Structures are given as C-alpha cells and as structure tokens.
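Sample entry (263 residues):
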Amino acid sequence: MPAYRLTGAADLGQHCGPPAEDACHAACGGLAALAEANRAATARQAEDERRYSAHRTETVRREQLFDSARFLLTRLSESLLAELAEAAPAAVHFRERDGGWTLKLGDAELHFSRAALAHPELWRLEDMPAAPFDVVAYALIQLRFSADHRGYQGRSHSLWYCDAQAEEQFRWFETAFMQNPIVGRSRPRPAREPFALPPEQDARSAISSAHLRQVAWPFTSLKADNLDPFISQWANWLAQASQRRLTYPSTMPERRPHGSWRT
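Predicted structure, serialized as tokens:
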C-alpha cells in the first residue's frame, strides 16, 4: 500500500514552484487570518463569561441583601404596629395580603407597605451623574384621611434600604420628598406632602439636582434598638389626623435634609 504524507504550510513553501507561489502565500495568509479570528472569538467568549460571572455574583449579592432588608423591615413595622395598637386600643388594624398592614383610628389610616426590590437600572440613570449610593429595597409609610378645607389628605415617607451614609453599610433609612417650590410654583400643591417616592427617576433627580422634586426629610437611619423617635413622630401625626388637626407643614422642608446622604 502506498504511503501518504500530509503536506503542511512549510512543505508548501518548499515544494511549490514559481507558478504556485501566489497560491501558497494566499493559503498561508488565510490560515493566519483564521488564527487571528479565533483569538478574537476566544477573547470575546472570555469577556462574555467574565461579565456573566460578575452579573451572577451581583445578582446573588442583591438577593442576600434583599433578604436582610425584608427581615429588618418586618421587625420595624411590627414594633411600630404593636406600640400604636397598645396606645390606641380603639384603633382597628388589618394585615394585607402583600405583607403590609393598615391601622385605622377615626378618619385616619396609617399604612405600612411591604418591602419591594429596587431596580438598579431605574436608579442608575445613564444620562445623569453616577448615583451617589446604592438602593436595594424600598417601602413606604403613609398617613391618609379625607381632604380638609385646603385639600390636604396626609403625608407619606419613603423607607429605603441603602448605603446612603457609608459605602456598603446598608440599613433602612426614612426620607421624604416635596415639590420644588420654585419650579413647581405653577403646579397645584400635592394633596399629600411630604410624599414618598420609589428609588427611580424622580427621586434620583431630587437627590442630584432638585428639579421638579427635592428632598424634604433628612435620610434618617432606623435601628431596631432605637425606634422611639420614629414611633413617637408617627403616633403624634396619627393622633392629630384622627382629630382632624393635621395640616400642611408650616415650613418645607421641615428638617434640613442636605448633608444626610453621600454625594
């Protein structure tokens, strides 16, 4: 049986005669181009795998933070509800299917929502400077009642699980927002003010530039072992609202918010 030998690129160069030199160069050039394309594809694949791994790591991280946020918020909300119910036995409260609760005293209702997962893409807007801090979860606490003679119907505050004051130190913060009195001068005053906002575009703008909205309440850390100020303020507002004595704040913002979050 005759023996066969594979011919490599080097052999082509040795055995091709002058008439075949162009074909030899073309073959060698094609192989080099293919090798370069392979290197590029390998690099892209490695980068895709790196990005997927980073995304997966970040997803797991945020899921773990969200679990902590829900646990801590449950402790906060249950502490508030227990204190209010004990101080006002005539109040009626009920739990909602989504995990929140509402307490009703007279015409006033105090609602505490469940925790919701924040969406980074709605907080880290591409057309704005980098977000000064990260938000993992949010909720709201809202006091509502029938409109008074000026149309006022209560107030709501945002609860954000974020690292507003120290990087990577996540905790629940209370804050609130208001309509910018200069830009919004031609707009009707909101029926509820201050008001809560989710960590999305309007809140992001308020944090960065105070365009249509601005921060109306300093970012205040809520700690399970020191909730007395938080409980006392909402108990007081609930008492006033149940007696039709809660009105628009006389000054806005009520407390100086600037300097209470990282910039």
